[in-house]
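Fill in residues.
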């Protein structure tokens, strides 16, 4: 077991959570050498003598052998991680946006430097999904992974379905409790879940899919009409990220609201919790459940990565090295619910098949099947339209 000297970038919610759990942990021989922050005037719950404002202090310190990156800025995080690896330091990161954008390059950089980059904390908070996919599902028998990957959105949907609150009220409450940011778009529009899905897919199937090639629709357009439609059919709406194998062995991905029944494992995942269903060829379905956000759940996940580094653990990326990664395809039919106000908006949607159509006074809906690639074509326009799209 290797003695670790840690340099920490970022001292927000997760950074302070890590600081606390490190002090209480008996499982790893680790010392926090310095904590680099950007804002000198920011008030913090924990004041530490280790604080520094010199970005290079950690990178240039030969005694620091692990860099933990927990900052918000994806571009800044990318340059930090890259420089740390090149300087011969192992790295732990929680920045899913940065990882999703640069994963292939960072995998190659680990090969070149012989150093380890671990990021279990980036995907599902306290749920060790990445390491499980690496160690226990290292074959080509996976069929699908379906997950509630964003705790903020799930908390909001819980308030809507269990407490009969409207979206605006539920969002405001989530913000007051610290589950959603003052600008909640990253969570409620599905970006957070999207970046996590890219990372999970790389470890599940070995395929790195650019996030711009994945259909993404969030929950911020949900209204009482959509909720009533779901409840009348005994369903709930969850923001779901999914990667699945097609019949010909390719994979398809999406992030979107989904109408789920009581038989679905994620039906009962409520509040700020995450839930992931792994489906395989011979073991049917397996379910992982835990808190997806917060100081201590995520801080504990970071600590788990740090502990793994003390044992010289690295991701092996077995599915890339020993299997032929499946091809990403958008050529699949999805069952879709569309609520719309104007006929001109409906014209954008190229339904292959219509199963139900309702026209009310002002609000209409239609259910049927649409090719995923046709949804992706209009993805950029949907955010500006008074429509709600859900997978049935």
């Amino acid at each position: 077991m290797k003695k670790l000297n840690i340099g920490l970038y970022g001292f927000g919610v997760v950074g302070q959570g890590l600081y606390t759990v490190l002090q209480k942990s008996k499982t790893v021989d680790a010392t926090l050498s310095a904590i680099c922050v950007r804002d000198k005037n920011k008030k913090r719950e924990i004041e530490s003598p280790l604080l520094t404002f010199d970005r290079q202090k950690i990178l240039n310190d030969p005694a620091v052998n692990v860099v933990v990156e927990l900052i918000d800025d994806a571009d800044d995080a990318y340059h930090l991680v890259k420089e740390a690896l090149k300087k011969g330091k192992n790295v732990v990161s929680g920045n899913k946006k940065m990882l999703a954008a640069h994963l292939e390059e960072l995998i190659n950089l680990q090969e070149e430097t012989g150093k380890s980059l671990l990021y279990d904390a980036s995907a599902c908070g306290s749920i060790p999904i990445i390491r499980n996919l690496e160690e226990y599902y290292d074959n080509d028998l996976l069929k699908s992974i379906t997950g509630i990957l964003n705790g903020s959105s799930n908390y909001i949907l819980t308030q809507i379905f269990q407490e009969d609150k409207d979206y605006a009220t539920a969002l405001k409450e989530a913000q007051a409790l610290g589950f959603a940011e003052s600008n909640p778009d990253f969570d409620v529009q599905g970006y957070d879940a999207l970046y996590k899905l890219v990372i999970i897919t790389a470890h599940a199937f070995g395929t790195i899919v650019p996030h711009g090639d994945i259909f993404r629709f969030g929950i911020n357009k949900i209204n009482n009409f959509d909720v009533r439609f779901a409840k009348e059919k005994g369903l709930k709406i969850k923001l779901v990220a999914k990667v699945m194998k097609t019949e010909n062995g390719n994979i398809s991905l999406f992030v979107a609201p989904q109408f789920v029944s009581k038989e679905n494992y994620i039906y009962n995942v409520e509040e700020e919790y995450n839930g992931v269903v792994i489906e395989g060829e011979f073991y049917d379905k397996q379910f992982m459940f835990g808190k997806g956000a917060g100081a201590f759940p995520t801080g504990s996940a970071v600590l788990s990565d740090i502990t793994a580094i003390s044992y010289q653990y690295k991701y092996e990326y077995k599915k890339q090295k020993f299997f032929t990664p499946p091809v990403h395809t958008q050529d699949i039919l999805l069952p879709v619910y569309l609520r719309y106000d104007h006929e001109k908006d409906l014209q954008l949607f190229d339904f292959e098949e219509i199963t139900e159509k309702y026209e009310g006074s002002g609000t209409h809906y239609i259910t049927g099947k649409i090719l995923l690639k046709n949804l992706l074509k209009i993805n950029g326009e949907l955010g500006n339209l008074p429509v709600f799209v859900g997978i049935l």
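The chain has a mean pLDDT of 93.
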